[in-house]
Write a structure and sequence with these properties.
about 80 residues
Length: about 80
Amino acid sequence: MSVKMPGLLEYWSVDELAECLDGVGKELYAKLWSYIPEKGDGPKGADVWNELTEEQQQRLADAVYREFPDLKAVDEQDSL
């Protein structure tokens, strides 16, 4: 089963996702921060989505929808 990527990941950088969402957990927090280069900006969440395990994708999606419940309906509507 594939986890559908929340649309928010198109806009938020990996460090924003790690810092601003409750519930990502220590492992995913560290994984997201690992994508930040020494100099410069980090990628958007969408850029690294396919590099995450299915479990990490699910945890991130759950954290997004827990923080922004209205986005779940928007994302589901977009997939129709």
